[in-house]
Design brief:
ABC_transporter-like_ATP-bd; transport; ABC transporter ATP-binding protein; globular; ATP binding; six-stranded mixed β-sheet; ATP-binding
């Protein structure tokens, strides 16, 4: 599995998943890669998706000091933040002796949209992937509702409330629209009647009820995105991380994506967006962090970001207008 199709110094190890249709980032997020036969059985739709597909467990990385890697433990309570808060403290990451993220700190509250912006190579992608769990942090703390989740794998973070929507298509290609959403509801909602009620509600809310029986591979870009977000909400996230949501879409679809993000914040979900489309992102978020040379250059509302002379000199340019 690739993440956003990017390689290079701003991207570290990405968990490997076979590119067989029906297995993608969303599958990985909701189900541990566990070959032991005594592991709990998969729900029916996820079992269908996994038939004939072998997934590989990511290799454990050694700690920065060379010691043996630690086992993934439970999220621990501590003084790392507050309820309703996703926070990062003192995050660091190096590649080949070059530090690409230096003491980064940021936070997102429930019900707000926050941008993570900066020039290419600034370190924003690495910060974003460390929060999702796709990249391991060398130092620092990532906390959710006051609990340290820094060492937890991606699927554990998903179960605790962190949703992730990658830039590339993450639809379950072997299922139709309603079964894409139902596959996750089978994990989160044990009661069948309630599961079907929630399914109908999500299909209606995201205006894809008429497509419920349509093959997912036949969807347009906007329809696919709506299905992916509806499916992500079936996992009951308290925070959503959106990777390049405006990439590769036509101008008409920009407003559609912005409306979807507003739907998330109206639900009380905190949204963190990283994107190269500065105008679209600043026009949507409540505030933004600007990353430069691996550090947070500034944080503030769109008008404060645009007015900052350092941001204009190093990132936006003197002629930038929102």
């Amino acid at each position: 599995m690739t993440a956003g199709g990017r390689n290079g110094p701003d991207v570290d190890y990405i968990p490997e998943v076979d590119d067989t249709p029906g297995v993608d980032a969303a599958t990985y997020a909701f189900e541990p890669v566990d070959p032991e036969p005594q592991a709990r059985p998969r729900p029916p739709l996820l079992r269908r998706l996994a038939q004939g597909v072998q997934r590989r467990r990511p290799a454990r990385r050694a700690a920065p000091d060379g010691s043996a890697p630690e086992e993934d433990g439970p999220a621990e309570a501590g003084h790392f933040g507050a309820a309703g808060l996703l926070a990062v403290h003192g995050l660091q990451k190096s590649y080949g002796g070059r530090m690409v993220v230096k003491e980064a700190a940021l936070n997102v509250r429930n019900g707000e949209a926050v941008g993570l912006l900066g020039p290419n190579g600034a370190g924003k992608t690495t910060i974003f992937y460390m929060i999702t769990g796709l990249v391991a942090a060398d130092r620092g703390i990532i906390s959710l509702d006051g609990h340290d989740i820094t060492r937890l794998p991606m699927y554990r973070r998903a179960r605790l409330g962190i949703g992730y929507l990658p830039q590339e298509a993450s639809i379950f290609r072997g299922l139709n629209v309603e079964d894409n959403i139902r596959a996750v509801l089978e994990v989160t909602q044990p009661d069948r009647k309630e599961r079907e009620r929630e399914l109908d509600q999500l299909l209606e809310e995201f205006h894809i009820a008429r497509l419920r029986k349509a093959p997912s591979i036949a969807l347009s870009g906007g329809e696919r995105r709506r299905c992916e977000i509806a499916r992500a909400l079936a996992g009951r996230p308290s925070f959503m991380l959106l990777d390049e949501p405006f990439a590769g879409i036509d101008p008409i679809a920009v407003g559609d994506i912005q409306d979807l993000v507003r739907q998330l914040t109206r639900r009380g979900i905190g949204v963190l967006i990283t994107d190269h489309n500065v105008r679209e992102t600043l026009g949507l978020v409540d505030r933004a962090y600007i990353i430069h040379s691996g550090q947070v250059l500034m944080e503030g509302r769109a008008e404060d970001v645009i007015a900052n002379p350092d941001v204009r000199r190093l990132y936006l340019g003197e002629d930038f207008r929102l």
